[in-house]
Specification:
The complex is a heterodimer. Chain A is mainly beta. Chain A has no helices and eleven strands. Chain B has no helices and eleven strands. Classes of the chains: A mainly beta, B mainly beta.
Amino acid sequence: QVQLVQSGTEVKKPGASVKVSCKASGYTFTSYSMHWVRQAPGQRLEWMGWINTANGNTKYSQKFQGRVTITMDTSASTAYMEMSSLRSDDTAVYYCAKDVQYQLDYWGRGTLVTVSS
Amino acid sequence: DIQMTQSPSSLSASVGDRVTITCQASQDISNYLNWYQQKPGKAPKLLIYDASTLETGVPSRFSGSGSGTDFTFTISSLQPEDIATYYCQQCDNFPLTFGGGTKVEIK
């Protein structure tokens, strides 16, 4: 069965960086792209970007361009999302989600990133 | 960016009631509209894609309709396990965007 297992809770200080991992299993990793979506407390879901796992191409929301980098390790069937220059309003749960024709059909359980001094 | 506006933001209904949620896109998105269910503390779950196609395994009491800019999501007979927040999401253009969510509670 499809599973996306994300790395654990992170606590960071403002200005730091964080890297969240998402290990996929139960399907061929390179056959489906991977999205990253975040949800701040009480807020709507917010799409951050995605990576084409067949060729490594990425696309980012303009809001996160320059501050977010999505990468992958196909040998480990793992996608990564790294965010730099963290601010308090980056406190959120970060999800990876498998793509099928721009529908997000499987989601990881989420990684809570707390940014606090 | 395409703005997605959902209404209502919350609703309270009785078990067995018919529940309807609307989602409006700021521009024509054809039928590139998905619906998700998110239970507290959990990840979202895809329920409906392409505006009206039920994801495999999703109960038939859930349905969706619409095209262009106006969409509707319906629960034909509300069950206690349907307590959740529901989100629409457009996939016509990047960036993918979500509605603000509709929190469904039992009266």
